[in-house]
Amino acid sequence: MKLIALKQIYFGYSVLNQGQEFETTEPHGRELLKKGYAKTPEALQPAEQTEQTEQTEQTEPPEPPEPPEPTEPTPDSNAGGKKSKAK
């Protein structure tokens, strides 16, 4: 049974990292799935396809934003920086 580790798993005298694909027996694989330590590669593919479909729908060119109306500049009281005393 092929699985993908969701957490670090000590397996076969080594540690599997998150996202690493590995193969194990059916009973051991079902136990890891039940405990949430792993997932099947097939479980990942339908979700990715759905996300890709949604992303392609969202990539339609948006309407160009209207240019902002020009506004008159307002003087900023702090534009001169720090004022010092005249000597």
Task: Determine the oligomeric state from the structure.
Answer: single chain
Tertiary shape? elongated
> Which runs of at least 5 residues are low in confidence (pLDDT < 50)?
none
From the N-terminal CA to the C-terminal CA, the straight-line distance is 85 Å
SSE succession: EEEEHEH
Biased composition (Pro residues): 61-73
Biased composition (Basic and acidic residues): 25-34
Biased composition (Low complexity): 48-59
Protein name: Procyclic acidic repetitive protein (PARP)
Helix and strand topology:
Blueprint: E1 2-5, E2 9-11, E3 14-16, E4 21-23, H1 26-35, E5 38-39, H2 41-58
Antiparallel strand pairs: 1-4, 1-5, 2-3
Description:
- The chain has 87 residues and is an alpha+beta fold.
- It has a domain at 2-56.
- The chain has two helices and five strands; from the N terminus they run ββββαβα.
- The strands form two sheets. A three-stranded antiparallel sheet has the order 4-1-5.
- Strand 2 (9-11) and strand 3 (14-16) form a beta hairpin.
- It starts with a strand and ends in a 29-residue tail after the last helix.
